[in-house]
Design goal:
alpha/beta; 7 helices; two-stranded antiparallel sheet; 22% strand
């Protein structure tokens, strides 16, 4: 299973989390976020990581030019669009950044939100489902109603996000079979400061699922 730890801001934490087993690290490229990290610092972290680890920049309602500039400068392998980006916007990013994974995040407010998944099916590589919050785009600690997703079977890979922690991940994965999971606030001491004890616990729990 793909495991993405998002909101990385420190070189040593990025390295440690990759060594513990993360297959992807997320970097918040939204200046208003408490987890924001500048492109040059992202690159400093990326350069210390194994090439097998995906490096995803998270953007929201910004310009195509900004996304492309940051992606290239930071040596990202993927771009996550966490705002109100259209399918046409996603297409343009794919054209300008060939070989870069495009992830579209949907904040699930009602079941009708999931109908948007089909709109993006041919325009992005991966879908991410996050919890809805009226004032924050992500990292809120709020969970989705997992039972409402049990009939959700998109035609392309998807990641489950939204308030996941080492303590509730088993419950979530008993109800759902996503292609991967994305954690941020659930493995933090403070925004952008990861708790390596919690990350270690997470991967220990996940190993029990794989080996069971």
């Amino acid at each position: 299973m793909r495991v993405k730890i998002c909101g990385i801001t420190k070189v040593e934490q990025g390295q440690a989390i990759a060594q513990l087993g993360a297959t992807a690290l997320g970097f918040i490229c939204v200046p208003a976020s408490p987890r924001y990290i500048k492109p040059e610092k992202i690159r400093a972290i990326v350069e210390q990581l194994p090439q097998t680890v995906d490096c995803i920049g998270v953007f929201a309602n910004t310009t195509i030019e900004t996304i492309c500039q940051v992606a290239i400068q930071s040596q990202l392998t993927g771009v996550q669009l966490h705002g109100d980006e259209s399918s046409e916007f996603c297409d343009r990013i794919k054209q300008l950044l060939p070989g870069i994974e495009i992830i579209k995040a949907l904040r699930v407010k009602t079941f009708e939100t999931l109908e948007l998944a089909s709109i993006y099916a041919n325009h992005v590589d991966t879908l991410l489902l996050d919890a809805y919050h009226p004032h924050q785009l992500g990292g809120t600690g709020k969970t989705i109603d997992w039972t409402s997703l049990q009939q959700f079977h998109p035609t392309y890979p998807w990641l489950l996000a939204g308030g996941l922690t080492p303590d509730n991940i088993l419950d979530a994965l008993e109800k759902l079979q996503p292609n991967g999971i994305d954690l941020s606030s659930g493995v933090e001491i403070a925004p952008g400061d990861k708790d390596l004890t919690k990350v270690t616990k997470l991967f220990h729990i996940l190993s029990t699922i794989v080996n069971s």
